[in-house]
Every structure is written in C-alpha cells, then in structure tokens.
Recover the amino acids of this structure.
C-alpha cells in the first residue's frame, strides 16, 4: 500500500497594479485560456442523502416542483413554450433550479416537466441561430431574425439564464444537440452584437454580461473554437466592467454615497452578486493574474463596507452598508452562491469555498417557509419582526410588502429564482481534478459516483455526515478493483487543525485554510474520516456589534415565534412573524474576548427524517451570558443598533442582572438578534 500526502493552499499568485490600471486584461488569445482548477462532476452523479435530501424533497413537493402549475407568469401561454405570454426571465429562473432538482432526485415526473421547455427551446432555434420566445416582429410582421436584423430581436438577458439551464441539461445528459445549438447561437451573437450590442434593450443584460461570457467560455472548453473567446471578449467589453470596478475601489466608495436613480444598476445587489464571478471569468480567458487580485479586493471591500454576519452583503435592493438593521434580497443570495461556486472551480481558492458555505448554511435557509412556498423578498440581520412596513431599506416600496413571507411579496423574481440555491450547492459538492482524481470542496450528506484513475474505473463515495451540525465527515469508498487516485479535501480556515483517519486509524493532521490530497491505492470499503473541530468564536460587525460563530454556522438569539396570516389585494396571502419574550440583550466584553471558555454548546439533537430549517428542529444550542439594555426598543419595525464608543462598548444604562440566553444557528430563525451590542 502506498500513500502520498500533498497539501495545496490553492491561493493564486497575484501582483498589484496602480489603482484604475488594468492594462492587458482585454488582450486575449486562445493560448491565454486557463482551464478551471476543478470541474464539477456530472449533474445527477451526486445524490443527496440525509438532511440535504430532505430539503430537496420539500422543494420538489413545494414551489420548485409546481410553480408552473399555479404562478400565472409561467402557467399562462408561456413564451418559452411558443405561447404569447411571458418570455422574460422568470421561466428560465425557475428552470435554472427545477432542472437540476429533477436530476439530483432522479425524478421522472419533474424531468418530463422541465424537458418540455428544454426541447421547445432546442427545437425552435431560428435558422440564423437566434433563439427564445417568438418576438413581436416575428409575430406581427413575419420578420426573420438574423444577424443583420438583430435589432428586431429581443433582450439578451433572459437568454443568458436559459443558456445556464441548457448547460446543466448537457451536464446531466451529454445531449449533443446542446453543443450544436450553442455553437450556432454564439456565431449569430458574435455578428449580431455589431448591430444590437449587449445594452441595446436594457441595462439588465449589460450588468449581467458575465453570465453570457461564462457560457461561451464553457463551450470553448469543449469545442476549442477560437471565435468563442472573441465573442466572450466582445461581451465583456460591452458589459459593466466589474473586474475593473472591484479592483480600483472607486466603485465601492461610490456605493456608499447617495442612493438615488443615478447609476443604481451598478450597486443593485443582484447585479453585484452576478458580477462577482466576472474577474474569475476574465482570468480564465486572459490568464491575467491581476483579475484575481481585483476579485479579492472587491470581495473584501464588499464585506467590509456592506457585509452582514450571515455571510452576505446587504442589498435591499441597493448595497446599503453594514448596519445590522439592513436587509438582503433572496435573489442576491442565490446568485452570489452561484458566483462563488464558479469562482471556487476556476481559482481553486479555499477562501471562496469557505465564503460559499457560510452563505449557504446561514443566509439561505432563513428566507423561505418550511414548505418552500413563501419567501421574504428582504431578510434583515437583526430581525425583530417580519411584517408590513418601510423598514430601513433602500427600496422600501409603497405597499410595504418587502419584508413579509409571501409568494408574491416584493418582486416575484425571487419566487422564480430561489430554487437554484440548494440545488446548485448540492451539485457542486464534488469536483473532478485534472489528475483523474476527486475533490470534496463543500460538504453535505450525499452519494457520488464518478470515473477515477488512469483506467477510468467507477467509484462510489458515500459521504456520511450531519455537517454542518456535526464535526465529522466519513467518506466510504465502493470500488470493484483497487485503484490509485488522489482524493482532495478542503480544510476550512475556521478549523485550527483537522484530523484525518483512514479505516479508523490516525493518518495525519492538517491546519485550516488549505486543500489536502490523500493519494493511495483505494480498496473497496475503505473509509476516510475527516474531523473538523469547531470552536466557539466571535466576530465584529457593523456598529461595533458582535456575532457568535462555531464552524461555518452563525448563531442568533433563540426567540419563540408568533405567526400571523393575512392577505394583500395585490400580492396575495402572506405571513407576519413576531417574537415572544425579551430580546434586547447585550453580550459582555469579557465573554466576547473568551468565547470558547464563557459560552458552551448545551444541546445537540440528532437529525431525523422530519428535518426542516425551523426553530423546532434546531439541532444545536449555545448558552451565553447577557445583560439587557432597557432603552433598546423596536421603532417602526426596526431595532436600531445602540451607539458605542471607540472601544465598541455601549455606555448607556444596562441592567445589572446577568441572564443565561440560548443561541441557535441563524438559519433556523425567523426573528432574531445576531449582531449583539457589547457592554462592560
């Protein structure tokens, strides 16, 4: 038996340019193309188990599996089925989550449902390569849409989403029609952009051009047709320059100034979430390392100026600072996750893998109901009530429906788009490596099948774990014949030292913040165990607040909930949620400084088949000491953060009584305090 140990910190080599400089990034040649560090395994080869399968089953039973049956925009005379109805983004949005859900669960009924749209799209491509719902010009004047008459077409943006749907369909089926279809469309687009540039119809396409660039470069990785890189470069030049903006810092400074109708699209949180991937995508095409430096600068600036404790930047709808009273749109979360999934694959950087996991386990689950039928348009970090109101949002809406839990509350883009969050996270648990190995870069209970080694032998790895609620992950190998291949594992930066066991015996220990490789001749029934000890820590957030963390989970005050159902004439049924019991607690400075000693995990419940992300099923509790701030009250639905001094302490009146408070993982809460004031 031979075992090779390798460590890969996976941090890109970068160099700094003067602010505003991006010389050379726009020069591209086929030889500059850099393959991604990792390729996700085929869609459907990862099968969720445990709590993750339960989550996807809930979605299948709820809106993810049935939105087309009751949501009028998708149900009625749909343009993506040849009808005269809606042909904008919401049908592709829904398919972008429903299609991977069908293959992850191997659900024949849902496959048949989503394939109606896929097949209509593939079967109704125009001779020129143009595709999508019938245009007004085609219907009323029988115009043939070709490159010379591209202005008679319609917006590029919805097609960008449908390209992602088709790419996932190809990943699941390897249907060669997709390659032919995309090749024809991209040749059309290269010529059509001379007549109808990316921003011709709306700024939505211009602000989200990275979605289109990414798909052109994906096709290049298969066909190696040089025109695809030329197309990608053209789209990038006609789109918002996110790579430059993230790197030169003027943009992020401007996002903190006046929030009005001037250039609001470049601070719209969903656009920013999609734009996050642009520097990595540009790096892939150009090989320019400064793209990756711009990405890191932009992410750190975003999270410094606009970051919230649950791992996402504010965006309600604009980027809106780091005060814990700010909110974030659900679309921004799922799009930021998708960007981080692609950034992780392209760069191989553990930093973004950790960020993805924190966002998925904290920000994502709290914003939908147990049955996955209702959603919040905006969630708030310190959310002391879910109700109608204006709150502290940059886009409050006259109808005051941004914060409630309702299918049609706020804008309905999130109702269609929320389905990609859990499905794409699941499909990106495992990746293939360039040396015919496998990499577990995110963690969750699942079974994965792939080909490995020089002889391409089939292996099945069962990932047995309750992670992130448990510190241990077991990888059980099933393989017919002994085969040598590398198995890579991510050690999160929050883990001081991971312990790895092989068949129950100690193998090695490794520090956090890196990817390790165990290469050996694997046998049937081998088991590799990864132990990730989780320590209670605290972090400082907006207004000198403090949040409690353990592993990838952020913890919030446990508050019992009072739910109230109501209805709005325009937006339908919705729920409000209010806390019962006291909430205006502050943590003590000494406890913050010594969190691992002063705070304790006091309850750990095993997960069962009825698991759902709600307060009743929270599997963990931490007990902490706290004092009340009597003057801290809710005003107009908002719990404005108490002021602090330079040391981060609240100096107003504080009760002397010390209370034991219970904290639960943020994702299980609807009303909460997560960013606590600090008192002496």
């Amino acid at each position: 038996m031979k075992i090779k140990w390798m460590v890969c910190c996976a941090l890109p080599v970068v160099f700094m340019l003067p602010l505003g400089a991006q010389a050379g990034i726009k020069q591209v040649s086929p030889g500059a193309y850099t393959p991604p560090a990792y390729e996700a395994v085929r869609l459907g080869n990862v099968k969720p188990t445990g709590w993750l399968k339960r989550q996807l089953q809930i979605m299948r039973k709820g809106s993810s599996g049935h939105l087309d049956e009751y949501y009028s925009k998708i149900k009625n005379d749909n343009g993506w089925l040849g009808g005269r109805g809606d042909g904008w983004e919401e049908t592709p949005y829904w398919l972008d989550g429903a299609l991977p859900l069908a293959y992850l669960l191997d659900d024949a009924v849902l496959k048949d449902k989503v394939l109606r749209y896929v097949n209509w799209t593939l079967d109704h491509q125009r001779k020129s390569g143009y595709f999508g719902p019938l245009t007004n010009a085609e219907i009323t004047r029988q115009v043939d849409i070709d490159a010379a008459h591209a202005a008679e077409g319609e917006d590029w943006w919805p097609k960008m989403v449908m390209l992602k749907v088709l790419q996932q369909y190809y990943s699941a089926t390897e249907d060669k029609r997709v390659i032919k279809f995309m090749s024809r469309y991209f040749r059309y687009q290269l010529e059509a952009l001379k007549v109808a540039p990316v921003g011709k119809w709306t700024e939505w396409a211009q602000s989200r051009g990275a979605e289109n660039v990414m798909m052109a470069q994906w096709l290049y990785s298969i066909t190696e047709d040089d025109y695809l890189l030329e197309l990608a470069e053209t789209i990038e030049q006609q789109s918002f320059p996110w790579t430059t903006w993230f790197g030169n810092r003027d943009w992020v400074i401007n996002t903190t100034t006046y929030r009005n109708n001037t250039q609001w699209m470049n601070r719209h949180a969903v656009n920013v979430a999609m734009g996050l991937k642009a520097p990595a995508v540009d790096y892939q095409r150009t090989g320019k390392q400064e793209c990756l430096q711009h990405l890191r600068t932009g992410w750190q600036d975003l999270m410094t100026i606009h970051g919230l404790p649950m791992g996402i930047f504010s965006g309600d709808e604009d980027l809106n600072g780091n005060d814990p009273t700010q909110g974030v749109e659900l679309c921004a979360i799922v799009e930021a996750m998708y960007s981080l999934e692609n950034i992780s694959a392209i760069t191989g950087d553990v930093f973004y893998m950790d960020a993805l996991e924190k966002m998925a386990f904290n920000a994502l689950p709290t914003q939908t109901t147990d049955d996955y039928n209702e959603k919040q348009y905006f969630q708030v970090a310190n959310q002391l009530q879910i109700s109608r109101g204006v709150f502290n949002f940059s886009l409050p809406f006259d109808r005051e429906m941004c914060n409630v839990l309702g299918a049609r509350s706020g804008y309905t883009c999130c109702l269609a788009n929320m389905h990609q969050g859990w499905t794409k996270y699941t499909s990106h648990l495992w990746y293939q490596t360039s040396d015919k190995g496998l990499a577990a870069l995110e963690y969750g209970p699942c079974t994965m099948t792939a080909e490995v080694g020089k002889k391409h032998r089939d292996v099945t790895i069962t990932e047995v774990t309750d992670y992130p609620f448990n510190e241990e992950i077991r990888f059980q190998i099933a393989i017919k014949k002994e085969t040598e291949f590398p198995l890579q594992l991510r050690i999160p930066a929050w883990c001081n030292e991971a312990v790895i066991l092989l068949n129950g015996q100690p193998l090695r220990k490794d520090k956090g913040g890196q990817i390790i490789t165990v290469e050996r001749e694997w046998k049937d029934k081998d088991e590799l165990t990864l132990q990730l000890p989780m320590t209670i820590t605290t972090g400082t957030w907006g207004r000198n607040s403090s949040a409690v963390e353990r592993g990838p989970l952020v913890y919030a005050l446990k508050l019992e909930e009072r739910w109230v159902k109501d209805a709005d004439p325009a937006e339908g049924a919705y729920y409000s949620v209010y806390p019962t019991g006291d909430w205006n607690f502050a943590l003590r400075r000494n406890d913050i400084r010594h969190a691992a000693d002063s705070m304790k995990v006091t309850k750990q419940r095993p997960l069962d088949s009825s698991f759902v992300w709600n307060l009743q099923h929270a599997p963990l509790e931490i007990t902490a000491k706290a004092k009340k701030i009597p003057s801290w009250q809710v005003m107009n639905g908002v719990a404005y953060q108490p002021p602090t001094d330079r040391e981060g302490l609240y100096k107003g009146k504080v009760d002397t009584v010390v209370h034991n408070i219970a904290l639960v993982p943020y994702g299980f809460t609807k009303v909460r305090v997560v960013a606590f004031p600090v008192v002496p």
